[in-house]
Design brief:
elongated; formyl-coa transferase, domain 3; 2 domains; alpha/beta; 6-stranded parallel sheet; 3-stranded antiparallel sheet; Rossmann fold
Length: 399
């Protein structure tokens, strides 16, 4: 079918809240999956109370939950459990981010649900995963950043450890959960069975330590915080200009030669034994930075970036949020900010999806649902409940 979305044949029951889980199911929804977000009656996802707000609606919630249908269901009530099991019979994926064991206590863990539907993919993300000596510890993004080692690497030289400016632990966890779900759905094609996907925020950030663990194995020392520098290349850092700072990324000998010859006009640096190899440049990067800034401080950020790029060397301004949201390439050509109309919040600009499937492009189809917005459409239209039964469940506090 022309313009059919990549995951339009997949139905997801989304029990997640806050960020890691909703970020995963947002990806699935953007790519066309029918995502049914199931929330607690009367209160819903925690982030409905998180700022910033517009017309009383949380934009935190709106950004993470677009393209989803919204229903309410009380899983603590027997009728709610029974209804959820009926929904599982006609679903492909269940996603949750409760602390490990919560769904088992509710009688709705994977061992139960796979008997209801052997093809169900059951995906869970938590701070420490579902097994291991720390698996029962609570886990938020800052906990994952701290215990994974990422915070020990982030910050200025000589300064204290820093959390990154966005919730990278949650976001990486959500991405890993999405990858796991897609892999399990593919495996189901040849096994005929679903499986359980277990993702830990901590594991995700440990996998992002990249060369830092390798450097520790070489010399047995904790890698030092380096600010904006990079331990494998130089000059690869932020540099001062007349009106602020910008970045240059010289990742190899060829780029360094271009920088020296065409930008700094210091061709003698190319063969200088202090700078002639990546290892030597790293050993002497402090004095190399002084040399670069002798040139860059004579120019504005725009002038410096244009000169470096004209030489074929990677460079960029350090954009603030307004600059990013108005960037012609990012915001317009790549559609990384999307306009939508929310029934309560009004006009919104939401973050776009970075995955561009050129024949089945992700789309913003609907704004985030208000609490219980789609109860009737989903329970009656998708799962076949009668209006009378729906009214009974509402009176009983099940939905």
């Amino acid at each position: 079918m022309e313009n059919q979305m990549a995951l339009s044949n997949i139905r997801v029951l989304d029990l997640t809240r806050v960020m890691a889980g909703p970020y995963c199911t947002m990806y699935l929804a953007d790519l066309g999956a029918e995502v049914i977000k199931i929330e607690i009656p009367g209160s819903g996802d925690d982030t409905r109370k998180f700022p910033p707000f517009k017309n009383g609606e949380s934009l935190y919630y709106c950004n993470m939950n677009r393209n989803k249908k919204g229903v309410t269901l009380n899983l603590k009530k027997p009728e709610g459990k029974a209804l959820f099991k009926e929904m599982v019979k006609n679903a492909d994926v269940v996603v949750e981010n409760y602390r490990p064991g919560v769904m088992d206590k509710l009688g709705l863990g994977y061992d139960v649900l796979k008997e209801v539907n052997p093809r169900i993919v059951y995906a869970a993300v938590s701070g420490f995963g579902s097994y291991g000596p720390k698996h029962q510890r609570p886990g938020y993004d800052i906990i994952a950043q701290a215990i994974s080692g990422i915070m020990s690497l982030t910050g200025e030289a000589g300064g204290g450890p820093l959390r990154t400016g966005s919730a990278i632990g949650d976001l990486v966890g959500g991405l890993n959960l999405c990858v796991g779900i897609l892999a399990a759905l593919n495996a189901r094609q040849f096994t005929g069975k679903g499986q359980r996907v277990d993702v830990s925020l901590v594991d995700g950030l440990v996998s992002f330590l990249e060369t830092n663990t390798q450097r520790y194995q070489v010399d047995g020392r904790q890698p030092e915080r380096m600010g904006n520098r990079y331990p494998s290349a130089a000059p690869y850092d932020s540099f001062k200009a007349k009106d602020g700072e910008f970045v240059i990324g010289c990742g190899n000998d060829k780029l360094f030669a271009l920088l020296c010859n065409q930008v700094l006009h210091r061709p003698e640096l190319v063969d200088d034994p202090r700078y002639d190899t990546p290892v030597n440049r790293l050993a002497n990067e402090a004095e190399l930075k002084v040399i670069v800034e002798e040139w860059s401080t004579q120019h504005t950020i725009e002038e410096a970036v244009e000169a470096v790029l004209a030489a074929g060397v990677p460079a960029a301004p350090i954009n603030d949020i307004p600059a990013v949201m108005n960037d012609e390439h990012i915001a317009k050509a790549r559609e990384m900010f999307l306009d939508c109309e929310h029934p309560v919040a009004g006009h919104l600009r939401l973050n776009g999806n970075p995955v561009k499937l050129m024949d089945s492009m992700p789309r913003l189809r609907t704004p985030a649902p208000t609490l219980g917005q789609d109860n009737e459409a989903v329970y009656e239209g998708v799962f076949g409940l009668s209006p009378e039964r729906l009214a009974e469940l509402k009176d009983e506090g099940v939905i």
